[in-house]
User: Fold this.
Amino acid sequence: MKGKLIVIEGVDGSGKQTQSEKLYRTLLNKGLKVLKIEFPDYKSESSSLVKMYLRGDFGKNPDDVSAYVASSFFAVDRYASYTTKWKSFYESGGVVIADRYTTANMVHQASKITDEKERDAFLEWLAHLEFEMYGIPKPDLVFFLDVPPEVSMEITKERKNKITGASEKDIHEGDQHHLDTSYENAHYVADKYGWTKISCVADGKMRSKEDIFSDIYLETVDRL
Ligand SMILES: Nc1ncnc2c1ncn2[C@@H]1O[C@H](COP(=O)(O)OP(=O)(O)O)[C@@H](O)[C@H]1O
Ligand SMILES: Cc1cn([C@H]2C[C@H](O)[C@@H](COP(=O)(O)OP(=O)(O)O)O2)c(=O)[nH]c1=O
Assistant:
């Protein structure tokens, strides 16, 4: 019996970790068989190439590495996580909550491609790579946490680098052009693939964590 896969997606600092943890705790308290996963899987060796990419070993600008090449690093990391950590849980009917997924490649890598036809071709290639070739499951429900870059940047300003623990930013976070185009492209893919958009900002300010979560929870209950 196939399980359910719920993905929380959004640009850097949009509240994915906060909201995926809340959803996990709430469903656990309701007695559901639930597991939380996150990507990149920084604690696993499978994220080695992702770490090299994000710290700039292949080029200091996100555009130095093509959407195709960079996506393949993240896809391998997901394959390793799926196969070794949650395949059997999912296949026995569990509910899996993912903080980022293939959807992050759709947001952050597709944003490197400006021509719409070429971007669509990339998105098709990506779906084939991750869902067919690597055989990881397709999400049942994707939430896009809509936080414009000017607000998310305020949130991430003081944040430590997740890989090194130091204050330098990864090559995505440190690149204003990448942050802007990723946000714009996130709306494009969210509309194209029917993701559920959650407006996290009202009157220029973040809504409260609880307020945002109530939208996510209502939609989840409706769709589970
Ligand atoms: N609705 C909110 N209002 C204010 N601060 C928030 C909100 N949601 C998350 N945060 C804070 O913003 C920071 C980034 O949140 P996080 O959940 O780690 O985002 P992400 O996983 O998308 O990078 C954290 O310090 C978190 O506590
Ligand atoms: C999981 C994943 C992340 N990314 C990008 C998104 C982020 O800019 C960067 C690092 O991810 P992450 O550490 O989740 O960033 P944050 O916590 O700041 O939201 O990698 C991809 O391009 N593809 C992927 O499949």
